[in-house]
Amino acid sequence: MKTQEYTVIGTRPIRHDGADKVTGRALYGADFQMAGLLHGFILRSPHAHARIRRIDTSKAAAFPGVKAVVTADDFPQVPERLVDLGEGDTPLSYARGNVLAQGKVLYRGHAVAAIAATSVHVAEEAAGLIEVDYEVLPCALTAPDAMREGAPILHEDLKTKEFGEQTSRVSNVAEHFRHVMGDIEAGFAEADITVEREFNTATVHQGYIEPHNATALWNNDGRILVWCSTQGAFVVRDVTACILDVPVSRVKVTPMEIGGGFGGKIPVYLEPVAALLSKKTGKPVRIVMSRKDVFEATGPTPGSNIKVKIGARKDGRITAAQAYLAYEAGAYPGAMVASGAMCVFAAYDIANVVIDGFDVVVNKPSTAAYRAPGATNAAFATETVVDEIAEKLGMDPLDFRLKNAAKEGTRRADGPKYRRIGCVEVIEAMKKHPHYTAPLGGPNRGRGVAVGFWFNVGLPSSCTISVSADGTVNLVEGSTDIGGTRTSIAMQAAEVLGIPAESVRPTVVDTDSVGFTAVTGGSRTTFATGWAAYEAAQDIVRQMKERAAKLWETDAASVTMERGVFRAADKSMTFQELAAKLDQTGGPVVGRGAVNPRGVGGSFSGNIADVEVDPDTGKVTILRFTAVQDAGKAIHPSYVEGQMQGGSAQGIGWALNEEYWMNGSGTMMNSSLLDYRMPTALDLPMIDTVIVEVPNPGHPFGARGVGEANIIPPPAAIANAIYHAAGVRMDRLPMNPPAIMEAIWKQRD
Amino acid sequence: MHNKVRVQTTINGEPQEFLCEPRQSLLECLRDILGLTGTKEGCNDGNCGACTVLMDDRVVTSCLVLGVEAEGCQITTIEGIARGSDLHPLQRAFLENAALQCGVCTPGFIVTAKALLDREPNPSEEQIRLWLANNLCRCTGYDKIIRAVEQAAQEARA
Amino acid sequence: MTVPTVYIPTLLQAVTGGKSAIEVAGATVRQVIDNLEQLYPGIRERLMDQGKLRPNISVAVDGEVTPMGLLEAVGPQSEVHFVAAIKGG
């Protein structure tokens, strides 16, 4: 493949929203102000599972300063249908039920009622006066518990879908699916060594620093205006319209700047409630979640129970692999177990595979996507089993992976063959990296490796670009910017137009002002919205060629454009010069792009981790951490590195400390940032990054999405490092000091 | 109606006066009464650092300070860091090093880092990490933040 | 003359008598499904509802998930797969 030389792609311009973000001027959802603003507070269930017999809001409604109180009864009764929650289709009753509970509460923190008042303190005080009569029910808190015979049933109308067929069996298992490839029994029979292990991973949260927030105004013209923190303004629009039973055109969503999402800000929680309160009061209503609410009532990622069995010949070739993945969906079906199943063996070329996946409801908050959802849990299992096999065969763990690595043409267990992928390149980059052979330098230290894969998505995006007379352009797009994407998108337009990145002014706009754009998630934004910008820029080039042709009195077909210079015969003109003449050649030039792209390229990632395990306390110190990832083409390398480092940090927290510590009645005991322990600056070393570029043939610049794949390998890499440091194979997440000490003591006995 | 207290204080070098309920935190007063929304709320219990301000040159989480405690104090918020219409070297270093992704933790980091560099012009990586340990970032993994602070320190020493 | 190959997800192999890969003519995914239905009645209903692909099912042609779904063109040597529709976080 020819390497392209780009002018803008691959450089590191300052992000366009930079000055606002470092001065505190950028406006996030909770910063939103409006005349007459009321403040909302949500009353939440203290019980993990209960029937709501009665709600009496009269005392709260009479409290001075309270302007309205709502419950689920205030929602219009809409016939059941499916809504696109931005991460798959869900029954409307589930989406709505999670916003305000109807009939039953399914987790501690489940929203039951909401109050709008003159201050959030007044609203909170008044909420204490709402009387809810609960009939407490027993709860099921893990997948094995919920799958047991006689387990408390969360949804009386939920019948298991088994192998694609709806059964009549009422249970907490929403779905059991299976992928089969080849002949698993023959595969294991051929193996010289087989390792089978069972793993349990705890519920963890995306941990974005900015809590959810939404302001809604049910305006006097019937339009519902929303300002919120979201990864998908169009999802908010569509789901809110659906729940409130109004046409989507009645809802306008303005996405504010967003303080992190990682998948957790794709679902809709507050907007329909704020809208209802605004309808009742005639005023704008702002609701901001507390940190406790964020933990107890948004969408953490599934805890899981996983079994992985892998067989290999003594020459290192894997002959068979089997996985059992039971993921906790939380209160409503939809655990991301299907993607876990797609990723569990995705790094390997294996002929004989069986994967069983279970989507299980439990009395915990309804799970949402968290950066490569489902894949990290699965990789923790696979990558530690692979490490064990490599060790038993006396093979270098990266060589073992290379021997079995997935390549272009390898068939995945869920069916399709890979197109061009960078699995081998990532592993080779890990092998070549000085970290891999550096001395460990002390006792109780060990090194571990792991790899992971995420397929990334395409989905629709729209963009318009208009040319200013000074040769700069305004770019309008609808992808909320969580990590610098307005710049990586602007850079792609700049490259086409042959102008500097600074000459593009990107703005993220509301749902009235740009064509449909799917969520900022799925590692799609630089890829797909960038592609829409690319198309809009190409549209501008086409139009400007016609303008040059008019000026030069020739035909447009004879005009060429390269790196911002238009040429025909012996004449030439820069983009800036031509932009100054648009007025005299026909008026404004506006370019448009709308895409729903194919050609999505998956991304492989890998980690090398050095740890030191304190044999007396079980504390794990990360000494050195290297992240490698295939970006296809790094549009803005600093932000690609940033994604790799951020995903690594989240993966490290997931590996070592983070968990929902639930008591027996389903209360999260550590719902604060003190006790839900995310990594601080003191917990991490510098994180070295290596960007591998195996161009994605599907994208104009060869880009692959990079946001997610980097969170997949860290827990396994660290588990493998812990084994090599302390001699214990960990089978649960998090691998916190008590867990490690238990493993060490058990081994000593 | 709770009785409000009149608070007279100095914020970013300017005298300010406001009325607040005794139960309102300094964070709430800054954001909702004075309109200084650059200081953010991430947890409201002192564990994330997004609300960090300087109070008489002490680094404090303003969610754990009452508004009435600001009486007679010198408060510095993110809005007071830039030098007129020029960015402070820390702010520039954060941008040049891509030390922010979503940016919501950035004001807290910049205020804390400024306090560090005011005291220790040549901090080691370890010192920087220790000083910033109460500022949580979920996006960056801290690597580029540390480098930004090192760059700003280096520039100031030059 | 070659015809496209449709890969049947494990879940649906009960309808096709256990067959996992079936050669079926068709110039679009819709035509391929219609022709598949002639061979194995009942399979279309498992894949489609009210003229559209069932929610949470995507179709991949030659290894690439296609946003065109039923309307995607299928070549004589194409592979057609039905996979879970995933979006990510």
Descriptive overview:
The complex is a heterotrimer of chains A (749), B (158) and C (89). Chain A has 749 residues and is α+β, with helices and mostly antiparallel strands. Chain A has 20 helices and 31 strands. In chain A, strands 10-9-11-19-18-17-12-31 form an eight-stranded mixed β-sheet, sandwiched between helices. A seven-stranded mixed β-sheet of chain A has the order 3-7-1-16-13-14-15. A four-stranded mixed β-sheet of chain A has the order 20-28-29-30. The N and C termini of chain A lie far apart (57 Å). With 158 residues, chain B is α+β, with helices and mostly antiparallel strands. Chain B folds into two domains: 5-80, Beta-grasp domain (Ubiquitin-like (UB roll), Roll); 89-157, Orthogonal Bundle (DNA polymerase, domain 1). Chain B has helices at 26-33, 89-96, 106-119, 125-131, 143-157, and strands at residues 5-11, 14-20, 52-55, 58-61, 74-76. A five-stranded mixed β-sheet of chain B has the order 2-1-5-3-4, with helices on both faces. Chain C is an alpha+beta fold. Chain C has one domain (5-84): Beta-grasp domain (Ubiquitin-like (UB roll)), CATH 3.10.20. Chain C has two helices and seven strands, in the order ββααβββββ. In chain C, the strands form two sheets. A five-stranded mixed β-sheet of chain C has the order 2-1-7-5-6, with helices on one face. The chains are: A alpha+beta (749), B alpha+beta (158), C alpha+beta (89). At the A-B interface, α1 and α18 of A face α2, α3, α4 and α5 of B.
